[in-house]
Amino acid sequence: FDFIEKPLSIEKLVASAEKALSASTKRAGKDVALLLKNNCSAYRDTFLALDVEVNRNQILFLNGEVGTEKEELAKYMHHKKHKEGDNFVTSQLNLLVSGQQENESITSGLIKIIGTLEGGTIYLSGYSELIPKYQTQTRNFLQNLSLGQGIKFVVGVNSNTKNKSLEQHKELGAIFSDSAFINLPPIRQCLQDIPELLKSVIDYFGITEGLAPRRFSLAAQNILTKYAWPGNLKQLKNMVHATLLRPGKEIVNIEEIEETLTLQGPSGDLLVQKDILSMTMVEAKEQFEKAFLSRQLELVGGKVTELARRVDMERTNLYRKLSSLNIDYKKKQ
């Protein structure tokens, strides 16, 4: 910032203060984790726990559903301790495995990553997607790791994967008794905060991408405070981003919200796969029906009666269709 010479100039002092405040605001606005810290009441205790762990010399496991932005929370911790951004490294363990030769272990890849850092943070994702063999290798490596080199390890664990992460979480807790575990709340635990969270995400994209703001109607906000958000903050960000990219009206209404959520899905994926043109008509029709009904079921909170009304199908036929498409509607109700 500017060097202020004596005698002090009030105008120069005010200008420098405004410049510093603007730069600070922009930095904060680019921090995804602060969207949760400043706008999601359910995360109050989570951030207190994260702040405690910043200077602790132990492995940290972040346990949460898909879309809880674990990597961004790891970056939040990193930036509280380190000014530099270039000593934060992320590695996707399941992709690391795919690059290994048959006779190599996953640990060789991790050792190479550690060798690139003199200090900082390494965030590991994809642990939940590893087969048991590689999970064991990763656990053994972390368990025997010397943490005296100024490197903080943060491991993301998905709590809604096929390999029963709740049991996995207990298993990890037993093995890493001197490590820390933080459970990340889904944003459906702070539905009352969704209107403020929407405003902050709009500001975030204004700062990071220069997108013009739009306003969500009260009716649209009301719908979103009742939505289950299976994709958590990532899904909310994707939904807001999609609406800001659309030119036209200033107000985002219910119809636009429902269309966006139906087309995007929890992880931001499209309603149908990109390779749909390579399918037969029967295959494409089945994929569309499954994706369409799954998304609609999410929008109505798993209520089949409401789903029948929305898609204009007789309930008995709808139940048969859901079963034939292997859509687990009982779990959603």
UniProtKB/TrEMBL annotation:
Keywords: ATP-binding, Nucleotide-binding, Phosphoprotein, Transcription, Transcription regulation. PANTHER family: TRANSCRIPTIONAL REGULATOR (NTRC FAMILY), TRANSCRIPTIONAL REGULATORY PROTEIN. It comes from marine metagenome. This is Sigma-54 factor interaction domain-containing protein. SUPFAM superfamilies: Homeodomain-like, P-loop containing nucleoside triphosphate hydrolases. One of its GO terms (molecular function) is sequence-specific DNA binding. GO terms for biological process: regulation of DNA-templated transcription. InterPro entries: AAA_lid_NorR (IPR058031), Homeodomain-like_sf (IPR009057), HTH_Fis (IPR002197), P-loop_NTPase (IPR027417), Sigma_54_int (IPR002078). Pfam families: AAA_lid_14 (PF25601), HTH_8 (PF02954). Residues 60-245 form the Sigma-54 factor interaction domain. The keyword Metal-binding does not apply.
